[in-house]
Design goal:
This protein has helices at residues 3-28, 36-48, 112-132, 153-158, 211-225, 265-286, 305-318, 325-335, 340-354, 359-364, 389-395, 415-421, 424-445, 448-462, and strands at 52-55, 64-70, 76-81, 137-143, 167-174, 183-184, 186-195, 234-241, 253-262, 289-298, 382-383, 398-404. It is an alpha/beta fold. The strands form three sheets. It has a six-stranded mixed sheet with strand order 1-2-4-3-5-12, with helices on both faces. A four-stranded antiparallel sheet has the order 8-9-7-10. The chain has a two-stranded parallel sheet with strand order 6-11. It starts with a helix and ends in a 19-residue tail after the last helix. Residues 110, 112, 147, 172 line the site of zinc ion.
């Protein structure tokens, strides 16, 4: 029996249970830091499989790890599971028209129900493989909540849980099968508040000091800043408190939420400092008081090159998910749910990626069946999304996989994605991801030279230790983010 055949045997053994978990977590659809039922489901299942639980990591009630030691217990490797959902994206599974299970309720529009379940199956398969072959290693399933909120992995990394981990693998549900060479950018979020003096806006305007003016001036300052920042940087903001609804009162308080993104954590921090300077300037101009509180931050993510090569080879060996006519039918119907502008953009991106001559063929069978393998590049492109996996990748060699769980062109964080992630398409992608991750785990665990190489690459990146982008006094904002 080949190594892959053996992994497939274990995958078969855990198939039904894994599908049931993916479905259950999809139904729970719990918001960031509120994933109590989902976390409990995993902890119970992993305990029953002989894993030891360490609960409440880094002071986060829904963060945990489950550890299983085989033989000498070395090397130690982790799988990074997520299970949080997104607000308002409730949607019936497998349906291609909008129909929430419960109006306004959360839904798994990012597929984290699949993400965690695949990590579960691969943790079990990898453990069984090591045990049945008389090999050594420790498998750790990291239960990481709130990826869609303030994140948790940076807090778990800061608390040192990855210090003795030799490598980590994870994946994300996607429209494509790939081990990418792209990165994702670093991000920092903060609340800014201004305090002024209230007064009668008509009778005694000269006695008032407007916090709302300060907030508006801060935004204007940031608009001017945009011309003087690097192309890949982004600054987003939202009013969280505009000081009330009475124009005849000079507003004595106002608050905003800002998010700053840039490719590298150092660039992001520099840009964030410039935003703080602008906020100070706005307070000075209006004689108000400014205060700010950093609420979240993720490091940039780039996969560890040595591990990415291994993961890519395993993906090639396992192959892409096998789609049936019913899957293509659902994918075609789902594309029809998008408006003309989105469809035009989907066609354009298919033409750019696959060549204009293939667009019609792909729209007939809009599920990715090819494999985008990893290539080493000197300067990875940083796409403007952010993930707390970036922090783990600064703490221990880590890389991630994408496997198709929705149609080509599908928009992330959408009701369409909730539908796919509860459907047969999502489940097929999930099982394929689990197989690839399990194979990569056992191969890497048996390859000390590869682990050494991956660690050298990490050393060049982090200088020997993980530095959390958050100040030490910023604690996980459980229940308040
Ligand atoms: Zn996600």
């Amino acid at each position: 029996m080949t190594q892959l055949e053996e992994i497939r045997k274990y995958m078969e053994k855990y198939r039904e249970e894994t599908l049931a978990i993916a479905r259950k977590v999809w139904e729970y659809a719990e918001l960031p830091f509120d994933e109590h039922k989902s976390a409990a489901l995993y902890k119970e299942a992993l305990t029953a499989q002989g894993f030891e639980i360490e609960d409440g990591l880094a002071g986060i009630p829904t963060a945990f790890l489950a550890r299983c030691k085989v033989g000498s217990g070395k090397p130690v490797f982790g799988l990074l599971a997520e299970y949080d959902a997104l607000d308002t994206l409730s949607q019936e599974a497998g349906l291609t028209v909008r129909k929430p299970v419960k109006e306004g309720a959360p839904g798994h529009g990012c597929g984290h129900n699949l993400l965690g379940a695949a990590c579960y199956a691969s943790a079990l398969a990898a453990r069984d493989y090591l045990r049945d072959n008389g090999l050594d290693g420790t498998v750790i399933f990291f239960g990481c909540p709130a990826e869609e909120g303030a994140g948790s992995k940076q807090f778990i990394a800061r608390a040192g849980y990855f210090d003795d981990v030799d490598f980590c693998y994870t994946w994300h549900p996607s429209t494509h099968n790939e081990v990418g060479n792209n990165g994702s950018v670093a991000i920092m979020g903060a609340n800014f508040s201004f305090e002024g003096i209230a007064s009668h806006a008509g009778g005694s305007p000269h006695l008032g000091r407007s916090a709302l003016d300060a907030a508006e001036l801060m935004n204007i300052g940031v608009q001017f800043l945009r011309e003087h920042m690097i192309d890949q940087a982004r600054v987003h903001y939202a009013f969280t408190n505009a000081g009330g609804t009475a124009p005849n009162v000079v507003q004595d308080h106002a608050a905003l939420k800002y998010e700053v993104r840039a490719p590298h954590v150092s660039q992001m921090k520099e840009l964030f400092d410039r935003v703080v300077h602008i906020a100070r300037g706005a307070a000075e101009m209006t004689e108000t008081k400014m205060d700010y509180e950093i609420t979240m931050a993720f490091s940039d993510y780039v996969g560890n090159p040595a591990l990415s090569e291994m993961l890519s080879d395993c993906m090639v060996e396992c192959g892409a998910p096998v789609w049936e006519e019913a899957d293509y039918q659902m994918a075609r119907d789902m594309l029809k749910s998008y408006n003309e502008a989105t469809l035009t953009s989907i066609r354009a991106s298919l033409a750019e990626e696959f060549g204009p001559e293939r667009v019609e063929e792909l729209l007939k069978k809009p599920l990715h069946s090819e494999l985008n393998t990893y290539e080493r590049v000197k300067n990875p492109v940083y796409r403007s999304g952010s993930t707390d996996v970036g922090d783990v990748a600064y703490a221990t060699p880590t890389t991630t996989l994408n496997i198709a769980t929705s149609c080509l062109g599908n928009v992330g964080h959408s009701w369409q994605n909730t539908s796919f992630c509860g459907s047969q398409i999502g489940m097929k992608g999930m099982l394929k991801a689990a197989e690839i991750l399990a194979l990569a785990c056992v191969r890497t665990a048996q390859d000390p030279a590869l682990i050494e190489k991956a660690k050298k690459e990490l050393l060049a990146k982090n200088g020997g230790h993980y530095t959390c982008p958050l100040p030490d006094d910023v604690l996980p904002p459980v229940g308040k983010y």
